[in-house]
Amino acid sequence: MLQVRGLCCGYGRSQVLFGMDLDIGPGEIVGLLGRNGMGKTTLVRSVMGLIRPTAGEIVFGGRPIGAMAPHRVARQGIALVPEGRQVFGNLSVLEHLTAFRRAGAGGAQPWTPERLFELFPRLAERRSHMGGQLSGGEQQMLAIARALVTNPQLLILDEATEGLAPLVREEVWKVLARVRQAGHAMLVIDKYVQRLIGVADRHVIIEKGRPVWSGTSQQLDADRGLWARYLGL
Ligand SMILES: Nc1ncnc2c1ncn2[C@@H]1O[C@H](COP(=O)(O)OP(=O)(O)OP(=O)(O)O)[C@@H](O)[C@H]1O
């Protein structure tokens, strides 16, 4: 469904990705791993149309999206839960969900604000609260709900558990397991390798803007040498 081939991009004269490849099939969950600064967020930004690639291609559902504006990429069926959540301080929880609601491609049971309130009971309780009044964990749940209400085919999560208390982090992993059952493809960037192994089918490790390893959760779990070599764990 998503094919990234030979992708090069960066910021001004500083190149970050040097021929990145990535494939995600329908309903597949892929973990993207690598040390800080290796280019994970940059890859996500280029897929979302927020940075222009200088070479290579990005194809989603058979369509080249590498030159599309971010709103058009979103309309193709890709939703991002960005690093740092980026919820709107002056919109209520319900307003976030109604403003971003989109029908999606059909097929699967659509995510509606009401269905999302079942998935996130805490958000249901706070539906009239402004984004700025929520705790970090609640904002993270809202960022995930806001992405799901667009009914994407591919959901990308960039460090969704970062900076959260352990119990809240566990809630996020539980939500991802539920979302997985709903059949969305996902690209998940996260530092908690063991938990990522529990959710993802396959993993790609990136180093200095290139893929250096890819394999199944079982393979990653069994090879702690990889963790040490590429993840510093
Ligand atoms: N807006 C920017 N302008 C210039 N350089 C940037 C910008 N954003 C990121 N970089 C640089 O690009 C490189 C890759 O950053 P990126 O955020 O993609 O890494 P990452 O793998 O997601 O790591 P992290 O876990 O730290 O977010 C880093 O050297 C970073 O300093």
UniProtKB/TrEMBL annotation:
Record-linked Gene3D superfamilies: P-loop containing nucleotide triphosphate hydrolases
Domain ABC transporter: 2-233
InterPro entries linked to this entry: AAA+_ATPase, ABC_transporter-like_ATP-bd, ABC_transporter-like_CS, BCAA_Transport_ATP-bd_LivF, P-loop_NTPase
Origin superkingdom: Bacteria
Keywords recorded for this protein, A-Z: Amino-acid transport, ATP-binding, Cell membrane, Membrane, Nucleotide-binding, Transport
SUPFAM superfamilies reported for this sequence: P-loop containing nucleoside triphosphate hydrolases
Keyword RNA-binding: no
GO molecular function: ATP binding
Matching Pfam families: ABC_tran (PF00005)
Family recorded in the similarity comment: Belongs to the ABC transporter superfamily.
Protein's name in the database: ABC transporter ATP-binding protein
Lineage of the species this protein comes from: Bacteria, Pseudomonadati, Pseudomonadota, Betaproteobacteria, Burkholderiales
